[in-house]
Amino acid sequence: MERRAAELQRETTETGIRLALDLDGSGKTRIATGVAFFDHMLTLFARHALFDLELEARGDTGVDAHHTVEDVGICLGKALALALGDKAGIARYGHILLPMDEALVQVAADLSGRPHLEWRAAIPAAKCGDFDTCLGKEFARALTVNAGLNLHVTLLAGEDPHHSLEAIFKGLGRALRQAAAPDAREKGIPSSKGVL
Fold first, then answer.
1. Could you report the per-residue pLDDT of 159-196, keeping only the tens digit for each?
2. 23, 31, 175, 176: which could form a disulfide with 4 (CB 3.0–4.6 Å)?
C-alpha cells in the first residue's frame, strides 16, 4: 500500500489554514490554531489515531473560535478523504468505548462515503476555559461532511467538560485509526457495491 498522506491549504476572509496529514504516521503533531484548548484536543486526536498532523491556522478568534474550529474540521475531513483515495484494502469500520476519568464515550465510525453525524453528547457546561463546548459538535459536523464519514458519538457519562471533550476526541482518533487501518484480508474496496 502506498503512503497515505495529503496536504492542503484553505484561505477565506475568516481563516487561513495549512494542513498536512499522514495516516501511516506515529501520532506526531505540530499544531497551532490560535485556540489553545482546540490544539490540545487535536493533539490527543492525532496521537490516538496514530496520524501525523501538521496544522497552522489563523482565524478571527477576536470574534470567537467558531470559524477556526469549523474550517479546521473542513480541512481535516478533506485531507482524510484525499489520503484514503478509493479506500481499497481498509477496514472501513471502527468503534470504541473509551473512559476518561468519570467520562465515558462511545464512538463508531464508517468511512462509507455517505456523511452523517449522530451527536448524542450533552457536554455538561457551555464553556471549558475560553472554549465554547458546542464547538466540539461543529468540528465533528465539518469533519464528517468533508470526509464522507458516518459518525456516531454518544457521551454515556461525564461531569467535567474537559474530560468529556477529551474522551470524545480520543475516541474519534481511536475509531478512525481502526477504520482507516489496512486489512490484510481485504483485497478490494470493502463494500458489496464496489465503491465507497
1. 999 999 999 999 999 999 999 999 999 999 999 999 99
2. 23
Q: Which residue has the cell 504516521?
A: 25
pTM: 0.97
The fraction of the chain above a pLDDT of 90, given in percent, is 97
Residue 186 lies in a domain: no
What are the cell numbers at 9?
491549504
In single-letter form, the type of residue at position 162 comes to H
Residue 145's domain comprises 5-180
Q: Map residue 130 onto helix, strand or coil.
A: coil
Q: What is the largest CA-CA distance in the chain?
A: 50
120/142 Cα distance (integer angstroms): 16
Does residue 1 have a pLDDT over 90? no
- Confirm whether 144 is domain-assigned: yes
List strands edge to edge, sheet with 103-110.
93-100, 103-110, 150-157, 116-120
In a domain, 189, yes or no: no
Total domains, the chain: 1
The one-character DSSP state at 74 is H
User: CA nearest 187: which of 81, 80, 110, 87?
Assistant: 87
Residue 82 lies in a domain: yes
* Cα angle, residue 13 at apex, residues 9 and 19 outer, rounded to 5°: 20
Q: What CATH number did the domain enclosing 142 receive?
A: 3.30.230.40
